[in-house]
Amino acid sequence: MRIVTTVSAMRRQARRWRQSGIRVGFVPTMGCLHEGHLSLIERARKAVGACGKVVASVYVNPAQFGPFEDYSRYPRDLERDISLTRAAGVDVLFVPDDREMYPTNGDGSFSTYVIEDSVAAGMEGASRPHHFRGVTTVVAKLFNIVLPDIAIFGRKDYQQTAVVRRMVRDLDFPIRVIVGPTVRERDGLAMSSRNRYLSVQERERAPAMFETIRLAREVVRKASAPLSAGQLRRRLIQFLGGQPGVRVDYVAFFDPDSLRVVQRVRRGTHLALAAFFGKTRLIDNGRL
C-alpha cells in the first residue's frame, strides 16, 4: 500500500490510472477506523474488481465542525488506520493535512464552498449549521483529487449520503455513489468513531438508540393505519430521553428518497434520531 500525503502526488497517480483505463473505488473517512469502514473498503474492492484500484482517505475535516464541537479531540489513530487499510487491501491511502486541503496562498483565506440547500436543510443540517457545507466542500475536493469512478459511503450517515448524491447529480460528477449498510455492535449500537468517547455507563445505555428504532418499527408494524408523526415522535422521545444521562436532539420521520418530513408515518417511512449520551452525540436511522 502506498501512502500519499500531497494533493499533487495523489492527482498524478489518479491521472495515470485514468489514462490506463483503470477503475478506481474511493472510501473517504475521518480515520479512527472500525469494522464499518472496513466493510466499505471491501465493497469498493468488489465494485472495481481485481484489476481496479481502491483509495481510502483519512482526513479530519475542520470545515464540518462547529465552533463548540469536538474537532480538537476527535479520535485519531493513524498508525492503526495504516495497519487496517493495508490489511484490507487498500492500494493508496491518502492522508493530507489542512494546508494541502485548504490552501490560503499566503493571503490567510479560503473562501470557496460547495452548498447543497435542499436535502441538507433539516435534521443534521438544522442541528449543526454549516456542517454539510463542510462535508460537500471536502468531498467535492476529494473527488477532484482522487478522480474515482465509484465512491462508497455508509448508511449510518443517511442524510449525508443523500446530500452527496444530490451534489454528484447536480454538479455532474462522473461518479457512482454506493451506500453500504450500517454495521452494528452485537447489542445494536451503530459503529462510530465517536463511540470511543462513551464512558462505561454511557456505553451500556447507548444501545437505546437502536432500541428506539426497533420500538418505532414494532408500533408501525402493528398499526392498521398511518400514524401521527407528532404522537409517535413524543413516544420515542419519552422512551429514549427516559434513559439516565440521555438528552434527545431530534427524532425525525421523512420520505427515504426526497428526505421530505412527513406528518403521517407508515411502513416505508424513514426514521432518523440524534441524542447526547453525556457529552457524546450519537446518530442512527432506519427504515420503518
Run of helices and strands: EHEHEHEHHHEHEHHEHEEEE
Provide mean pLDDT, rounded.
96
CATH architecture heading of the largest domain: 3-Layer(aba) Sandwich
Q: DSSP helix count?
A: 10
* Tally of individual domains: 2
Overall 3D form: globular
Quaternary class = single chain
Neighbour order of strands in the largest sheet: 1-4-3-2-5-6
Ranges where pLDDT stays below 50 over 5 or more residues in a row are none
Main sheet: strands, sense, barrel: 6 strands, parallel
Rg, Å, rounded: 20 Å
- Helix content, binned percent: 25-40%
From the 3D structure, determine the CATH topology of the largest domain.
Rossmann fold
Give the class from helix and strand content and strand pairing: alpha/beta
CATH class assignment of the largest domain: Alpha Beta
What's the total count of β strands? 11
Please state roughly what percent of the residues sit in beta strands, choosing from under 5%, 5-15%, 15-25%, 25-35%, 35-45% or over 45%.
15-25%
Euclidean distance between termini CA atoms: 41 Å
CATH superfamily of the largest domain: HUPs
How would you describe this protein?
This protein has about 290 residues and is α/β, with parallel strands linked by helices. The protein folds into two domains: about 1-180, HUPs (Rossmann fold); about 195-285, Pantoate--beta-alanine Ligase, Chain: A,domain 2. It is about 40% helix and about 20% strand. About 35% of the residues are buried. The model has no long low-confidence stretch (mean pLDDT about 95).
